[in-house]
Amino acid sequence: MRWLSFPVKKKFNRNPVNIHEILDRAHQIAENGFAKTIDFTTFYDPSLPPVPGDQDLLIQVFLNLVKNASEAITDATREDENGGEITLTTAYRPGIRLSLSGEQAPQNLPLLVEITDNGPGIPQDLQEHLFEPFMTTKPHGSGLGLPLCAKIIADHGGMIDFESTPGQSVFRVLLPIASEKPETGA
Prior knowledge:
The chain is 27% helix and 26% strand. The chain has four helices and ten strands. The strands form three sheets. Strands 2-4-7-9-8 form a five-stranded mixed sheet, covered by helices on one side. It starts with 12 loop residues before the first strand and ends with a strand.
């Protein structure tokens, strides 16, 4: 028997990282592996400041989101030669604040990352359960990818949500910007 659990607030260094380098790495891995038939489009805001984070963990998050988008498109277009499209977008959205448990003041989350796919969309009856552990529509899926992504993003002081309609799903990640000095802990 295999036991699965999420790590309890594993400490990691939150060093300033460039979100575009993280997205480019996830994009490169996807394009050279599981998403060879998918067209990628990027709309990056070049003026974005760094985010405080663990580069490897953030690559894991965005790689998982891109993989989910790729699988949704691939499942929907098996007979079609066109593999669909994934769009990676970044933007600066001042004014977005989130109250985190244990924090006194709301946290500013001005950095927005969107992963958009033109797959079939997420069925309405699954949408409210999407970030629950073991919820999956994949025959061989564990249902731990999105809950783990949400935990990693929350540990980085951010949040993740989504919007899905037939023909399009958009996953949004909101993150804080890095302060002058590296942070330790999570």
